[in-house]
Structures are given as C-alpha cells and as structure tokens.
Amino acid sequence: EPLKIWRAQQAPCDSCETAGKIVAIEKNGPVIATSSGALQLLEVQAAGKARLNAGDWARGARLERGQLWPL
To answer: Can you give the pTM of this predicted structure?
Structure first.
C-alpha cells in the first residue's frame, strides 16, 4: 500500500549497515536507515487515509525494529 511522507528529518544512526532497515521505532515515528545515515518519519498518509503522526501510524501498522522498508 502506498505511503506518502509529508514530514521527515535526518536522524543519527549507529547501526545503518542496511539501507531500508527500520533501526528504531520512536515516539515520533520510525527511523529508517539510508545509504548515508537515517531518516525519521514524522508525518505520513496511507492511501485513502488522513495524514497521521508517523509514531501513531507505526504503532497501528505494527512495525518492528529490523524489518526492511517497504513492507
């Protein structure tokens, strides 16, 4: 299912060996490894849904640390 990212920020990452790996699930949203660091999602919108705080979305989507993005 497509996911639109409305807001995100650069995040520190000590374990970013695999781009696309979810390295943390924080209160404000999941942190995803990239080839040059990490990105924390802050506000997202699933197809046909309203915008959500990325932390709330991550809890509802039952994301887990270590999963690869996209799900």
So the answer is: 0.88
